[in-house]
TrEMBL record:
PANTHER family with a match to the protein in the record: ARAC SUBFAMILY, HTH-TYPE TRANSCRIPTIONAL ACTIVATOR RHAS-RELATED
Statement: the UniProt record of this protein carries the keyword Signal: no
Gene3D superfamilies, per the entry: Homeodomain-like
Species this protein is from: Pseudonocardia alaniniphila
Pfam families, sorted: AraC_binding_2, HTH_18
Name assigned to this protein: Helix-turn-helix domain-containing protein
């Protein structure tokens, strides 16, 4: 994993053609860019993303793409292996070349975290860099769920409604009253229809709500910024008021307790697991100007 700043003082146009992408390669890297200054556009998978200060965009650098800037630009770049991202392959491709709203809470958390991480990376130990990398990927996965289309079958009414419901869940995780019945009521559908909609993505409304809450809690437990939060604080922050319920659900999902997860990811480096999966999770810093 590499975290870098790039600064180009003049407009540019970078193209990777289909012929170039067809050459044999073992590179499965992804790049997430956060624009700090300037304006530009990225084209990939037959769509354009408009970029301005604060927006983010995911790119598959090994696939055909076209990047254009009308001005000088300055952006932060997070480069990582594709398999690290906790999304399905189709979801990753669908998330590419889509502008990420800088005012979205998940995007604000991610950009702020990456900016701070770049500043302190040299002061971190190798185990801490491993943990910081994991936390960055967790936050990126959370932010990308706000931009990737949520269901197969085109842009029909059912897909649009499902997308609205999923987005509502992610934006209201802290609401302890958000349950399946309330989710259905807020979107003016029956509970049965809510189950039908979530069946399109192979889950149920309750399972989706639980998974999103646990994912958010896991990201907080991995993040040093929340080290002073108790387990109860984190459970409440994702809408689970009963600590025993939270701990049971977390253990079922991840095979360990919230406290165990926090100990491992804030104070230990599980080198053997990273080597086994072939993931170079050591955070590096680079600066690039042009």
């Amino acid at each position: 994993m590499t975290l870098s700043w790039s600064h180009f003082r003049a407009p540019l146009s970078l193209v990777r053609t289909g012929r170039m992408a067809a050459r044999p390669s073992t590179d499965n890297a992804m790049v997430f860019c956060v624009f700090a200054a300037g304006r530009g556009r990225v084209r990939q998978h037959d769509r354009w993303a408009e970029l301005a200060a604060g927006t983010g965009v995911l790119i598959e650098p090994g696939e055909p793409h076209h990047r254009v800037s009308q001005t000088g630009t300055r952006c932060m770049n997070l480069r990582f292996s594709r398999e690290l991202l906790p999304l399905h392959t189709a979801e990753i491709s669908e998330a590419c070349a889509r502008s990420m709203d800088p005012t979205a809470p998940a995007m604000q958390m991610l950009s702020g975290y990456l900016d701070r991480l770049f500043e302190v990376a040299d002061e971190l130990t190798a185990p801490q860099r491993l943990d910081a990398g994991r936390a960055a990927i967790e936050l990126l996965g959370m932010a990308l769920r706000d931009v990737a289309p949520s269901a197969p079958g085109g842009d029909g009414p059912a897909a649009v409604l499902l997308d609205m419901m999923r987005r509502h869940v992610r934006e209201h995780l802290a609401d302890p009253d958000l349950r399946v019945e309330e989710l259905a009521r807020r979107h003016h559908v029956s509970v049965a229809h809510a189950y039908t909609l979530f069946g399109r993505i192979g889950t149920t409304p309750g399972a989706y709500l639980r998974e999103e809450r646990l994912l958010a809690a896991r990201a907080m437990l991995s993040d040093p910024r929340y080290a002073r939060f108790t387990t109860s604080d984190i459970a409440a922050a994702v809408g689970i008021l009963d600590l025993s319920t939270f701990e049971r659900a977390f253990r079922r999902q991840y095979g360990t307790t919230p406290a165990g997860w926090r100990r491992e990811h804030l104070h230990r480096a599980d080198h053997s697991r990273d080597r086994a999966t072939g993931n170079a999770f050591l955070l590096k810093k680079n600066r690039c100007t042009g």
